[in-house]
Automatic annotation (TrEMBL):
Keyword terms, alphabetized: Electron transport, Heme, Iron, Metal-binding, Signal, Transport
Signal sequence, renumbered to the chain: 1-31
Protein name: Cytochrome c5
Annotated InterPro entries: Cyt_c-like_dom (IPR009056), Cyt_c-like_dom_sf (IPR036909), Cyt_CIE (IPR002323)
SUPFAM superfamilies: Cytochrome c
Native species: Plesiomonas shigelloides
Domain Cytochrome c: 61-141
Gene encoding the protein: c5
Cell division as UniProt keyword: no
GO molecular function: electron transfer activity; heme binding; iron ion binding
Taxonomic classification: Bacteria, Pseudomonadati, Pseudomonadota, Gammaproteobacteria, Enterobacterales
Amino acid sequence: MRAKSICAKPRQAALTLLTSLLLGVSCWAAAADMSDDAISERIKPVGGVYLADTASTAKPSGPRTGEQVYNGACIACHGSGALGAPKFRDAAQWAPRLKQGIDTLQKHAIAGLNQMPARGTCTDCSDDEIKAAIEYMTSEL
């Protein structure tokens, strides 16, 4: 029986040599600089988020109307009756509260009562704006 030569299949030998060479080059290339600075450079964010000043340039022209306050803050609970809030212009739900008087309603709205937070989440509303919102919600009852 004849012994097989190493170069019996030159094509396979060439492929093996090429694969070994490519593997060696890739391992050499992967042995990159592992210093802290080099790592930081490789993993730094591609982009950044910059927030512009969102302060309004328009000056308020005066106190907001009851409708504006309602649509900006009150509607969240009084629009759906969430947490037991009396619904917008629902006479049956507002009747017991209206019996207490507008001043008591305003006091409760400003200080908060039960589930209603102070100022009904409208932290920048003035007392007069709160009163206007109550009057808007209870008008036409």
